[in-house]
Amino acid sequence: MNSQEDYGSFCFQCAEQALRSNVAPILTPGTQPLINTVYFPTPYNDFAQSVLKRISHEATPTGEDYYDLQDFFIFHHEIVHLQNLDWTPAKDLARIVLATCYAAIFRLLISDSTQQVESAWKDLGTFTQRLNEIEKSIKFVEELFANAWTFRVLEVSTRPGGKWAGFGKLLETLKENVLNTEEDKFPGFSTAYDSIQPLISLLLNNPSISSVILPLLQPIEEWGVKLPQAINAREHLERMLALPFIRNYPKLPPGKSEGWIEIKYYLEQMREKHFRRWKQLLALMLNLSWGKEVISISTPFTLPLWLISHGDLPAEGSYEDAMLHASQTLRDLGNLRSRFNIKPNIYASLEPRVGRKGQGFIGVRLGTHRNGKVDEDEADSILNLLLFEAIRQQLIARKGIICPFNQGRRLCQCPPARREALDRLYHIAKDTFFKKDELNDWNPLPCLENWPSGSKPEKNEFWVSKTLYKQSSGIITIQEYW
Question: Which contacts of 337-341 are long-range, i.e. CB under 8 A and separated by 24 or more positions?
Fold first, then answer.
């Protein structure tokens, strides 16, 4: 990898916030939907209090209230990335590619020879570039839909009796600021924002078809012996919005009109075409999660990615079994989105916190999309993925190295194997791969710097089987060294 400008982060940042440096320098503030992780620039407790204030007291809005409204927008904007656009063919393709990135990082952490380290670094660059290509294919539509959907929801909240009654003018100011920012990043964004409004209305008024429409926003190409490419989502959306029965949706009469027949026929055609490719991709993801090597890909990280995005891992079987399970997964999606009824149901929330001595740090909170208990296997999976995503982003941005589990402490709290591996990675990147002008923000682990002289932990000779996960009777267990 040459520099962070060459490779995308696959992280979606809210247009109303500036980037700040921490354990995941590219992620924040925003969302990494592939690992169900979000950063809120306002601590959740503070945000919740502002919402409760709005519910309890309908005060006349002032200029200061703009920031409360902004936080409310950011919260719902990021939730759209996590709940509405998390299950698409392009996202599952990206999860497989992301799993290969993590596997390359794992090899960097444990490889002994220079040749193995150089091979792992080369693979990380190759797969990161592939991840960037997918991100570029969908990013415009991702942000377009997230903004359009969120503002439509907020518009309802500003009506009499809503949480933000009387805030209509402030909301228009917020919308203008957001759209101007997005227009600077994506020329033509404002025009596309107006064009997508009929589709937003169609989905809000007919939620039963959202499980078909939303995946069609981020489709993949036909494929065979190699991983597919993501289709240019912007061009695909433009063709969809140009269809008369979508462009003229608000004018369609209710019932079995000609327009509705055309909509249903179009969705049936698109579902047959694009969901067939998606099912094939899910079957591949299942085989990789079962530990099989398919089309020259072998990585243990598809397993935790499957657990947090698609639920329990079915018992290992044949390729035909994988196709059957993939079909069931897609049926669950069509059944009011399985996220709201059965697993998976977990996300990690990063938020600014202050330690006992006043030091600022980014804390991690595990949450659910609905009230309920956090599944232990999913919690272990998402925390391990967060560790590798933090390392990946720090390597891309050349900013680090900080462990996401430091929690603002001066002394390291990690198991010896992880501590030694991160320290080793710092030196490998510094001495072998980074250019001199890329070292300004690349520093040793602060928790190791504060260890008393001669008190650093002894190095473990190896990690058990050099494997992240083990399976026993279908139960996934995270090894103690993580």
Answer: 337/83, 337/87, 337/210, 337/211, 338/311, 339/83, 339/86, 339/87, 339/369, 340/369, 340/370
C-alpha torsion 306→299→274→142, nearest 10: 70
Number of other residues whose CB lies within 10 A of the CB of residue 101: 27
In this structure, the strands spanning 475-478 and 469-472 are antiparallel
pTM to 2 decimal places: 0.86
Q: Cis omega (within 30 of 0) on the bond before 110?
A: no
Q: Cα(286)–Cα(96) distance, rounded to whole angstroms?
A: 10
Question: With pLDDT > 70 as the criterion, what percentage of the chain qualifies?
Answer: 76
pLDDT of the residue at 142:
95
Measured N-to-C along each axis, helices 302-310 and 376-397 cross at an angle, to the nearest 10 degrees, of 120
Specify which residues 13 forms β-bridges with. Answer: 30
pLDDT at residue number 369: 64
CB 128, CB 121: distance < 8 Å: no
Query: 445 and 422 in contact (C-beta within 8 Å)?
Result: yes
* H-assigned helices in 223-290: 233-241, 244-247, 258-270, 276-289
Burial 119-156 (b: 16+ CB within 10 A, else e): ebbebbbebbebbbebbebbbbbbbbbbbbbbbebbee
For 87, 151, 171, 270, the CA distances from 71, given in Å and listed in that order, are: 25, 13, 12, 37
Low-confidence ranges of the chain (pLDDT < 70): 1-29, 44, 48, 51-59, 63, 251-259, 334-345, 369-373, 406-413, 448-482
pLDDT of residue 448: 64
In whole angstroms, how far apart are CA 182 and each of 11, 233, 382? Answer: 15, 17, 30
